[in-house]
Amino acid sequence: MKTKKHGESFYRQITNEFKKSKSTFVVYIILRTLVIIVAVRQFLIGNYENTFLCVLTLVLFLVPVFVERIFQVKLPSTLEIIVLVFIFSAEILGEINDYYVKYAIWDTILHATTGFLAAAVGLS
Asked: pTM score, two decimals?
């Protein structure tokens, strides 16, 4: 029973972190829903490697919360959204939807735009 309480409080902490910034929370929910839909689809067609990538993506979506908790820093909501969209673009679009193969420049576009946006937010 104690573990359930601990799990519930952890879930509340994550939810509270994202509710501090409504835009971050909305983006988080939309991307998480899309990843779950992709995971179910990949599982149903028997592609278990991509299903695991979806689970990994869901775990990676928690990175901004852990960074804030462990290092005691407040990340700007814009930076959190950039990180979430980067993870989604790299794992779901790039790996599962083969954007790295379909578009030869996908990796360059992804890293360049994310790098510039993250630098701009950091400097501001």
From this structure: 0.80
